Fold this protein.
Amino acid sequence: MQENTYYVHDMACGGCLNSVTQSLLAIDGVKDVQANLQTKAVTIQFTNQPVNLDILASQVADAGYSLTRE
Ligand SMILES: [Cu+2]
């Protein structure tokens, strides 16, 4: 199992955090998501290999937020 940490700097409240978390959990290959409102860090655990950043970012963009590596 692998995990990577990303950032969603436009998460402003618990509602944002839930939207981002749910959108990522819907992706095939994403096993678990831990998002932190204070640091804006989103740590994603993957079932196998990390899912491509473009796929993650596009799914989060559909929810109205932007996911980056830093
Ligand atoms: Cu919010």
